[in-house]
């Protein structure tokens, strides 16, 4: 049995490898089971491959103990009766393994296998004369020789699926950084076509990281010379449509994409509410969402309008040679939209942390001191959040200005409204920075922040005026 740790979100491979090694050490110490570390957690380069750690399997394990070059990384000093019962295990850090099946318009397992051998890294056995029934060629050591396939970091086989009544090429991609899913798809399509077979769609087995589908969606959008600056849900839909992920059954994004499954467990977010629901919550007796969240909403709307103009410009008839220019602008806009939407909820969360700090006990001198420190820290963070809203909203002016100047002239008013929304966001967030900073006792902590924020507030007026001058001249 192996225990791979896989980074999904918010953690690097190096950090994951460090955790894998710590886990391996604990298993050896606390459970008494020797452990090999493999792939990114390997201490030796040759142990990056799990097969090296497994070499000889259980029967060949005992002679490896006590030999530095061969013994397990943890707990391999001495062979004991307990080790004889448990054997060894392996802990590693690796990339996410993608299991994908390619649906074929044939029932022939032989044809499916031929395609699989064309693409898989190992390839096919070399035979005399290139004939499928020719004598197997071997090297000087008597080992079979192989003709490598087209795709690195892949293993594949052909089979017939009775449930669907079709043959498939079943593939494991062990490193999507080397062979992305869309690259594998295109190669299987090409090799199948060369053998008179068509790929009708694909099937993801298990879960898949969001980034894999986003990369695929962007690839197919580029092929169509379409803007990449669209919401991630639409990019993923492009991947689903292009690779036929719903060929055999509906592709349920919420239950197939890892990040979306994790999101289900998070608390309800303000940004997930309807427009009416958000406004009514703002109008209620609750102090949150307040002005900080509303400022972030206005900034997000400004960024969204600039992004919309960029996308409309990218698809404007006669501007085909400029699609990439506007696509790049739309991608920047989507990044700003995502950041500002995050800050909508983060502002409310920061306010709630201040309230929690005020609710701490204050019965003793020590409790009072801890409460005061907690209030100051929470308030300082509540000052930083609207400051971040200001910085992100200032970036909206660059997008809105570019679209007012060079974007689709039919949408110039939308660019102008985007600039108005951005200024409202900057000034609204500035008010929140000031009111929260006023409660910070250590003025040195906020002096530079207030100075920079004041500069942004003044500059926002100038940027808005410049953009509106362009807009008014074109209307």
TrEMBL record:
<dbReference type="InterPro" id="IPR022384">
    <property type="entry name" value="FormiminoTrfase_cat_dom_sf"/>
</dbReference>
<dbReference type="GO" id="GO:0016829">
    <property type="term" value="F:lyase activity"/>
</dbReference>
<keyword id="KW-0456">Lyase</keyword>
<dbReference type="GO" id="GO:0005542">
    <property type="term" value="F:folic acid binding"/>
</dbReference>
<dbReference type="InterPro" id="IPR007044">
    <property type="entry name" value="Cyclodeamin/CycHdrlase"/>
</dbReference>
<dbReference type="InterPro" id="IPR037064">
    <property type="entry name" value="Formiminotransferase_N_sf"/>
</dbReference>
<dbReference type="InterPro" id="IPR036178">
    <property type="entry name" value="Formintransfe-cycloase-like_sf"/>
</dbReference>
<keyword id="KW-0808">Transferase</keyword>
<protein>
    <recommendedName>
        <fullName>glutamate formimidoyltransferase</fullName>
        <ecNumber>2.1.2.5</ecNumber>
    </recommendedName>
</protein>
<dbReference type="InterPro" id="IPR051623">
    <property type="entry name" value="FTCD"/>
</dbReference>
<dbReference type="Pfam" id="PF02971">
    <property type="entry name" value="FTCD"/>
</dbReference>
<dbReference type="InterPro" id="IPR037070">
    <property type="entry name" value="Formiminotransferase_C_sf"/>
</dbReference>
<dbReference type="InterPro" id="IPR012886">
    <property type="entry name" value="Formiminotransferase_N"/>
</dbReference>
<feature type="domain" description="Formiminotransferase C-terminal subdomain">
    <location>
        <begin position="96"/>
        <end position="261"/>
    </location>
</feature>
<dbReference type="GO" id="GO:0030409">
    <property type="term" value="F:glutamate formimidoyltransferase activity"/>
</dbReference>
<dbReference type="Pfam" id="PF07837">
    <property type="entry name" value="FTCD_N"/>
</dbReference>
<feature type="domain" description="Formiminotransferase N-terminal subdomain">
    <location>
        <begin position="2"/>
        <end position="95"/>
    </location>
</feature>
<dbReference type="InterPro" id="IPR013802">
    <property type="entry name" value="Formiminotransferase_C"/>
</dbReference>
<dbReference type="Pfam" id="PF04961">
    <property type="entry name" value="FTCD_C"/>
</dbReference>
